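Input:
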Amino acid sequence: MEKVVVKKSKHIPEKGFHYTAMVLLILLAIYSVIPFFLMLAISISSEATLAKNGYQFFPKELSFAAYKYLWAKRITIGRCYLITIVTTVVGTAVNLVLTSLFAYPLSRQDFKHRNVFAFILFFTLLFNGGLTATYIVWTRIFMIKNTVWALLVPGLLMGGMNVLMVRNYYAANIPYAIIEAARIDGANDLKIYTGIMVPLSKPVMTTIGLFAALGYWNNWTNGLYYISDSKLYSVQVYLMKLMNDIAYLKSSSYGMESAQLATMSFPTEGARMAIAMIAILPILMVYPFIQKELVKGMVVGGVKG
Amino acid sequence: MAKKNVPASSVYDGLLAQRNKKSAKATFAVYLPLYLMMLPGFIYLICNNYLPMFGILIAFKNVNFSVGVFKSPWVGFKNFEFLFATNDAFLMIRNTLLYNIVWIAMGLVIAVTIAIFMAEISERKIAKVIQPIICFPSMISAVILSYIVYGFLSTNYGFINQIMGTKTNFYTKAQYWPFILTIVHFWQSAGQSSIIYMASIGGIDKSMYEAARIDGAGKLKQILYITLPMLRPMIILLLLLSIGRIFNSDFGLFYQVTLNSGRLYKTTQTIDTYVYRALMEMNNVGMSSAASVFQAIIGFVLVLLSNLIVRRIDPQSALF
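Output:
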């Protein structure tokens, strides 16, 4: 009886906290998506509206001219898209193979030198040579400047943290007895890897694959450092160069304005936002289906990332 | 007694040695596939991580690409002396540290608050919608982010200038950027950074809250005396880890979102953007590598130190 009384007396303030939390979180959610609506609104405003009213959430006059412009430029933009898709698919696939291949021996408790290799891997998480040295190594030794390798290889192919994550998953979830039994049955290590480790580690591979894919899709720094040939631009690199060129022209002594820029065959304000929109569209479309995996990865990677 | 059974004769020694040799060979043969499996990743680590580590020697050379990096003369700490004689050095270190310190403190409060609120409504269906939405901004690249920020700040068309009826050129006004970057940073990272705390709160034993309620503790008291103390190890751990990265900054935010505007350097230049600009725009390999090595070495020391402290407090959370 007493319990009920106590509960009742605390009833009102607790409800208050509950609803405050809910309202604030809903506001936060709205705040998180509002900027994307501005992007969308700019991309579907007519140029006349933009010139008169600037960027508005509710454009007075709708126009799909920006998207028509993208269609007219489909060869350039299509190539950027193709490069993004190819590097994302190939990069993610190679990343998964390299990561799991490196993780499997590290998880084998009978493998004597596993600690040596684990340390070699782990040390890369603690110390790095910095951008200058990395840049010089990739451009002067490996000569990857203006090759497609620049978009695939530097920094993105295998992450130390991911290898450790997969190693821990193998060690915790796949009993050594299974591996031993397979070996007694005559399976070699490659067979064990492809037949046991990979199929049994789907959850962790999915998480790592998603983060790798997101990393490739969103990567623009490799393009900034190593690519100047416009034939090799990915979507992100194309958008980055476009924005930087415009910012440069606007800030330079010419003091160019948007109207002048348009005559220089730069995409219009709306068209630029439209390109940015189609760059995040694929993420937006798959996000509802992959967000659970991503959240799981953030919890694991959050601490030790 | 047993000794008698083992002859001193060297015949057996030879056999034993032979067997050991054979088994060493056999062991290697058994583990050869494992070595081969690690080979591709190992080569990648050498190329991507270890060669650049040796590249820090560049900071102690006067690099001249016409004679090659290896033949360039050694200059000792000259590059560092030049670097720290400039005003840039003070500015970039100050900016990097200030942004990090303020953001670490603010980030902690924001992330924990969101997590506590999320835990409060976690029973409701709407929580399953809110969580992915507030995490979504962390899925986009700094390039897209720069487009969004430009939509708000552009001089002629920008949304802010439209509603204020002004024509402020934000990209030339350094004084606004500490605020702009703080808003942008938390817009992008608040949701994601709260997830780890949400997971920790989810792991707290529910019966503790039950007991507290029976004892008459309200929500606020439950948070103060149960949730926060239970989160303490995680908070300390994440704080120490971010202190280990205090000399690093988000290059995309400080370079791309500011559109690399030279007029903003006073408040937007960080070590990372300086390293890039010195290398690519000033073509000053010496200064760039000096700043980059300075950052890498201090970062390394700080990571080791913070890990040492983490291990003292909570050995399981330590990185090593």
